Amino acid sequence: MGHMPRLALLTSPTDPDPSVASLAFLGALGATGWKVQHFRSWACPLTSRPIGPITGLPGRHLDAWLMSPSVCRSVFTRGARQTDLALVEGSLEFAPIARVNDQAAGLACGRSGEIPGPIAPLLEILDLPAIAVLDCLANEPLSLPLIPRQADAVLLDGVRDRHHFEQLKQLIEQRSGAPVVAGLEALPAVRAGLAGWPAGRPVPRDLLEPLIRSFLNTVDWGLVSRLAKSREFPAPDQAGLEVPAWLLTSGERRFRVAYAQDEAFGGYFPDTLEALELLGAELVEFSPLRSEALPRGVDLVMIGCGFPDHHAAQLSANISMMAELQAHVCKGQRIYAEGGGAAYLGRSMQIGAQVFPGAGILPIDARLVDETGWPQPVERQLTSDSWLARSGTVVRGYRSGRWNLLPAPNPHDCPSRFGFLSTEPDIVFRSEAIGSLVHLHLSALTNVVTGFASHHKLRSTRLNSVSR
Q: What distances in angstroms separate CA 99 from CA 199, 274, 306, one per listed residue?
């Protein structure tokens, strides 16, 4: 047990992700010298991209639907232990489900009435003091916004000016007893600019600075600090990521993982990369946009989600990299790609009326169907054995709504060496390459993440046995 400063920020399911209040809060914390780690309450790597430039740390992810309580505590502890404050942002309802139709939402909720994504289970698992963001944009000067029962304090979002803030602050504290930590002005031009800003892109400073100044004008840092330190942290379970002992044998060459990182790709859960390092991986970056070759001695290539549709012409023109990826698979080596990465590995990328050549590895044509397609929670049971996992394994994740994968097999391919790994056409393989529209948080899937290292370890063991 110990004091790990932490707060929950309760936002509305209709707020952007991250919310305007969160951007202001994080920017003000950074401007005041706080080292803060931001977590979101559901796992989608792309929507955390705006966080890094503000906090100096990559945005992280918690998800009580994907992760057991022990994994949640372990992931949280790894991310928060070297910071002054951990801020967990989320809604008491799940925004992505609110944005899909009722039938899809019902199918996504899983078994036993589980609902993906809300922050409420994390409040209990991590014993989080909570600040509720209250929408004041539509309130009369002396009206009292509804305060969630889970809130320990409130943040007033959308006050007209300092006088309006003081009026509401006095009213709320007198009638509810909930302290007010800060207020944020309406700033309609800034909000309009943020509403039109592409999802997943860093927020420009000319939109961020007015938010920070407004927040700093009213914030009570003493209250923020007392609230963040008000509770002891539940001791994390010792297990964390359970790794088979045979994967951690010493004296072997570390397996090298090349992961795509550039303007087109780069959506990874930080915990996934850390889990691979725990399994003995040496991580090296490469760029499908600019690199002519893969790093030397690579055992596994990872291409995370991103926006290949924004760079399709440049990606298709880099024939050297496509040849490198094809040669990697031909040598029996592995590739794993998600979202836009899976689309890039196909035979073509169809973007509107234009068709761009893909890397030609996966037996699919990828079609962009919705530029803003929101990830939806899904559960998949794998129907074939692969290095990812055995047939019958059930995985949960968030399916990209931007792409569809249409079968496009090569007539010369052996039918047993390609196909889909589930009954839904969103996890596809060919030889040792796997592409998935379902984003998986590998720290929550021990039986899956160990597969990323096992091929190298087993091959090393066989080679060592032969050499003896």
A: 15, 32, 21
Q: CATH 3.40.50.880: which residues of the chain?
A: 251-467
| Main-chain dihedrals φ then ψ at residue 237, nearest 5 degrees | -65, 145
Say how far residue 326 (Cα) sits from the centre of its chain. 28
Alpha carbon distances (Å) from 201 to 197, 263, 367, 428: 8, 10, 22, 28
For residue 343, the 8-state DSSP code is: H
Q: pLDDT digit string (tens) for 259-297?
A: 999 999 988 888 888 888 888 889 999 999 999 999 999
pLDDT tens digit string along 217-248?
999 999 999 999 999 987 665 545 554 444 44
Query: Span 251-467: which CATH code?
Result: 3.40.50.880
Which phi and psi angles does 322 have, rounded to 5°?
A: -60, -40
Burial 334-372 (b: 16+ CB within 10 A, else e): bbbbbbbbbbbbbbbbbbeeeebebbbbbbbbbbbeeee
| CATH superfamily of this structure's domain 6-228 | P-loop containing nucleotide triphosphate hydrolases (3.40.50.300)
Q: What is the pLDDT of residues 158-181, one digit of tens each?
A: 999 999 999 999 999 998 899 999
Burial of 242 (0-12, 13-18, 19+ CB in 10 A): exposed
CATH 3.40.50.300 domain position(s) in the chain: 6-228
